[in-house]
Amino acid sequence: MLYFITGGAGFIGANFIHYMFNKYKDKITIVNIDNLTYAGDEKNLKNIDSVSKDGQYFFEKIDICNNEMIERLFHKYRPDYVINFAAESHVDRSIKTPQKFLQTNILGTQVLLDASLKYGVKRYHQVSTDEVYGSLTDVNDFFTETTLLDPSSPYSASKASADLICQAYYRTYQLPITISRCSNNYGPYQHQEKLIPMIIHKIIERKRIPIYGDGLNVRDWLYVEDHCSALDIILHQGEDNQIYNIGANNEKTNIDVTLCLINQVREILSINDGHLEKLIEFVEDRKGHDRRYAVDSNKLKTSFNWSATVDFNEGIKRTVHWYLKRLHLI
């Protein structure tokens, strides 16, 4: 089988490529389509040669909004599956410069859908986010796949729009699509501007750790390898035109995550510094900041017996260890 993976040099995409080659070995071919913007780094895939053979992995530096170039790629490779990770994804950036988010996340998706329809892919999968649902206020509530869309930022609005376009292509053209909406991911290869790697770097550099508002915003934290295993199942076993939530039931406040990271860095590096917590600095809250996200993954669990296997403490330990190793500190 031949897979088009867009955004494969980014955080989740790179992890997914590693996951697929580790699982399927020489049974697959992957074409990684990435424009290498600030969040995409080919170094994330520098070890791919150790798990793939000649002719199994190809890299194409292309913007998914470039209709002509995408058409050429589809004509050249004739993919069986397309999985779209490519997206502008940082909420703060979307608030400052929304146009780029609308262009990549909406129009880029449309370009991929058109090519997928023309070349008869077996499945087009859209990687979305739980942020399309908006914010939860009741601590006992969870987002389900039927929760009404209520995005709060230009980023989440662009992802919700892309989801609706995917569903329209199924209903209008019968293009076999699936959509997944995941909770916050963490793990190797994530860009430094995201919360967990940002905090790790701030701790190492002994710089102020900015935390929005009161630090009590809640997110469900999903280790990226668990996300990859769920995507693998959905891609190959999911039903057409279905949405699947992917979560881990690891709800943590931002301040709890920060304190956990401080303790992990302190433990792994044997740092005898009781003042690291003083690096925390509460700053003005993000505009339109959602208070809580939490997804109900029962549909995925009951349909395919999937569940997250990495608990938060173990996942954070692995994550901190990976970043410290990358910084040559261990």
Automatic annotation (TrEMBL):
Belongs to the NAD(P)-dependent epimerase/dehydratase family. dTDP-glucose dehydratase subfamily. Transmembrane segments: none annotated. It catalyses: dTDP-alpha-D-glucose = dTDP-4-dehydro-6-deoxy-alpha-D-glucose + H2O. Its EC number is 4.2.1.46. Keywords: Lyase, NAD. This is dTDP-glucose 4,6-dehydratase. The keyword NAD applies. Pfam families: GDP_Man_Dehyd. Residues 4-319 form the NAD(P)-binding domain. Its cofactor is NAD(+). The keyword NAD applies. It is an enzyme of class 4 (lyase). GO terms for biological process: nucleotide-sugar metabolic process. One of its GO terms (molecular function) is dTDP-glucose 4,6-dehydratase activity.
